Amino acid sequence: MDLYYVRYPLINSLSSCRFHVNSNIMSGFNGTKENSHNKARTSPYPGSKVQRSQVPNDKVDWLVEWHDYNPVEYTAVSVLAGPQWADPQITESNFSPKFNEKDGQVERKSQNGLYEVKNGRPRNPAGRTGLVGRGLLGRWGPNHAADPIITRWKRDRSGNKITHPISGKNILQFVAIKRKDCGEWAIPGGMVDPGEKISATLKREFGEEALNSLQKSSAEKRELQEKLQKLFNQEHLVIYKGYVDDPRNTDNAWMETEAVNYHDETGEIMDNLTLEAGDDAGKVKWMDISDKLKLYASHAQFIKSVAEKRDAHWSKDSETGCPG
């Protein structure tokens, strides 16, 4: 499913496919101080008319003293209504979350290590956002998602791998979905359910969005599961895990994801699975990987990393490394 399985309200398209993280604390796709933590400071807040307090680049870091910092408080009505996927308000007397650890079935540990808790509220590890509360996010602290990247080699009718005429590298393909909420192409993905292992989330999300598993009969679901088991039991590459610069992030709640690549080397497993859009996906297809891709949010960066790790074609230029 999509943003995300726990039925968070869908939001409009993100304005940029560029992925930025705080270079001091995040690993993965590095950003500079000037361009990191951008989406988490954008206004209006998604799905609302709420304007964040403006946070200049030099005041993002919590270590920089800012006595006049006066963030706006906002938590969406849909979150305050108390759905199953959301925490209570931090002020409720019967709510005592265990931050930085596994709290019952809820994972409150961050992929990026310990985060600070101030006045009973967790602090966004990437810095100030101009907004406190949870916005559209259900959990105080990290809200965990998972993105399965399923790949195969592009082949001709004879079954031979197709190489790019300029780079000379084999062309890789991945399963892409077209999101219903914003119309952009993306990696299938969704929220991790309480108590669910990341590996289970990855398989479930791919089945629901790219194979329409929710609409299958019990017998069809069993058959799908057997075929998917072969794919997801293979060795895999963890492409990224950690904080995501997301427009829903606040000072007290933020998105984190784990993007994992499962590669069908021979293509035989995926040849036996019919792609069919389901749940929050409008369309689904195999998409050639190259620097021409226009994808939702940070997904282009994830895909670029897959191409580099698989030594596949990315661009016509010989240099494919990430900029420093």
TrEMBL record:
Catalytic reaction(s) noted: ADP-D-ribose + H2O = D-ribose 5-phosphate + AMP + 2 H(+)
Molecular function GO labels: ADP-ribose diphosphatase activity
CDD domains (alphabetical): NUDIX_ADPRase_Nudt9
Origin: domain of life: Eukaryota
Gene3D superfamilies registered for this protein in UniProt: Nucleoside Triphosphate Pyrophosphohydrolase (3.90.79.10)
Entry-linked Pfam families: NUDIX (PF00293), NUDT9_N (PF25969)
Positions in coiled-coil regions: 207-234
Stored InterPro entries: NUDIX_hydrolase-like_dom_sf, NUDIX_hydrolase_dom, NUDT9
EC number: 3.6.1.13
Keywords: Coiled coil
Region of interest called Disordered, as start-end residue ranges on this chain: 30-53
Span of domain Nudix hydrolase: 153-309
Entry's family note: Belongs to the Nudix hydrolase family. NudF subfamily.
Subunit description: Monomer. Interacts with GLOD4.
Its biological purpose: Hydrolyzes ADP-ribose (ADPR) to AMP and ribose 5'-phosphate.
Name this polypeptide is given: ADP-ribose pyrophosphatase, mitochondrial
Organism of provenance: Bos taurus
